[in-house]
Amino acid sequence: MVIWLIGISGAGKTTLGNKIHNYYKEKNIKSFILDGDLIRNFYDNDLGFSKEDRIANIKRIMLSAYVLEQNGIIPIVCNISPFESLRDFARNKFNNYKEIYLKKDLDLAKEKDIKGVYKEHLEKTSLVGIDIIFEKPLHNNLIIEVDKENINTSYNKIIDYLEQN
Amino acid sequence: MVIWLIGISGAGKTTLGNKIHNYYKEKNIKSFILDGDLIRNFYDNDLGFSKEDRIANIKRIMLSAYVLEQNGIIPIVCNISPFESLRDFARNKFNNYKEIYLKKDLDLAKEKDIKGVYKEHLEKTSLVGIDIIFEKPLHNNLIIEVDKENINTSYNKIIDYLEQN
After folding, report:
1. pLDDT in tens, B105-116
2. B151: phi > 0 → left, psi -120 to 50 → alpha, else beta; which?
3. Is A12 helix (H, G, I), strand (E, B) or coil?
4. B82-104 pLDDT per residue, tens
5. Among the four residues A75, A159, B77, B106, which has the most C-beta atoms within 10 Å?
6. B contacts of A71 (beta carbons < 8 Å)
7. Which residues of B touch A58 (CB under 8 A)?
């Protein structure tokens, strides 16, 4: 199984990813978090945030997720993943791909902007939601409306889903 | 541990890689072969064989090898890996990188050309040893002189080395 959390900056991918990772740890099931920082750090930040570079970065993640799945370890991917064509690619390549969409309203995200990503990076790097469109997910397995519920409710919904599927 | 078999086409990377994989299987130690075909197939052959594309391909392999190593699985990489800068990168990134150089004389390889890679692809794709230089490995952990010994001798040398290191 591959768990892939998608959604714009600030949607809670890393927080929820860590909680899912802990859930599996307690059950003695091996999982591993693949997040944007791990991958960019591994490569000494050789890719930027343009559309092309984001695509290249996601493709790197995918192979790692694939080899982990092949070896019985559950990768938990925390990545914006704005491109539907790559989500389709994942759906075709993994044995059991679980796409969980952390749906966050973009205007609200910009307004709150807790991490300061929208203000700070606005004129520096291409940002998903500003310069790059977050393409609407067409085939996700689960939608979490993060604006409407707290993190524990979201977490419980995800675990319920994973236990039943 | 990451076992990385380097060497030009026809040096025996895949054959030896499979034998090492079987060795670990019999010992109930998890290992996984990462070879050029697996990676290129995973990506539906989106990269060619130019220097730039080979670099991109090797970088993809590296992250996969890294996440496997982090999860206690031994990746066995079978890849020409002609660039010393990327071998250095691997040396710095993995906890325990074992670079095994399958040294094969290029003129002899072209003369014998068992797989037909040199004749067939000569005018089609960039070939390591023809258009792209196989940079001399400067810091390998073990050199196997594949022209001077049979495959079983090479295999035994590699296993002896791995058992002692």
Report:
1. 888 888 877 777
2. alpha
3. coil
4. 999 999 999 999 999 999 999 99
5. B77
6. 30, 32, 68, 71, 73
7. none
